[in-house]
Specification:
Blueprint lengths: L1 H18 L4 E7 L8 H7 L2 H12 L13 E7 L1 H10 L7 E9 L7 E8 H4 L17 H21 L1
Helix pairs in contact: 3-6
Length: about 160
């Protein structure tokens, strides 16, 4: 019986350690959408910074640190607005569209910090379309396309953080 209790305690402590997630205290996204020349695109993509921050926070909802947390990660993302403007201004189709950003995750301590460029393609975003979406009529200014790209980007950032 004592052996069973010790084994159960050991398994429980390992599960807790394995399930421990990095807390996040700040998410900041910058994207200069004023660089966009296409009015329709600006109307849809103008809230990209706020929407991406919100989508990442939603992905990490159980990992948001309380305000008084001393050790938590900080996420900074700089969207490549030149690349964004390039495909929004020249071609309104979505086939070759990508959302590109430099991601910086400062972890508590310095050993596990992450720096990478994340590129999310329109193809990767298809799993985020609402059920029944007719992809043949979508373009870069479609709300469904915009939301899917933001959600795909946010999911990738959250997934990478959780790998750590």
């Amino acid at each position: 019986m004592t052996h069973l209790i010790r084994t159960t305690a050991l398994v429980a402590s390992l599960a807790t350690a394995a399930g421990a997630s990095t807390l996040v205290q700040d998410i900041e996204v910058t994207a200069d959408v004023s660089a966009l020349q296409n009015r329709e695109a600006v109307a849809v993509w103008s809230d990209l910074e706020t929407d991406l921050e919100t989508a990442i926070a939603a992905e990490l909802v159980n990992q948001i640190a309380p305000e008084d947390a001393e050790e938590a990660a900080e996420i900074e993302i700089e969207i490549d607005t030149v690349a964004l403007a390039s495909w929004l201004d020249t071609e309104m189709g979505i086939a070759d569209s990508t959302l590109v950003g430099d991601v910086k995750i400062d972890m508590p301590g310095t050993q596990d910090d992450q720096r990478y460029t994340l590129t999310v393609s329109a193809e990767q975003a298809t799993v985020y379309y609402p059920e029944g979406t007719n992809v043949t009529v979508l373009n870069a200014t479609s709300g469904e396309f915009y939301t899917a790209m933001v959600d795909a980007f946010a999911h990738n950032v959250a997934e990478k953080l959780q790998e750590n």
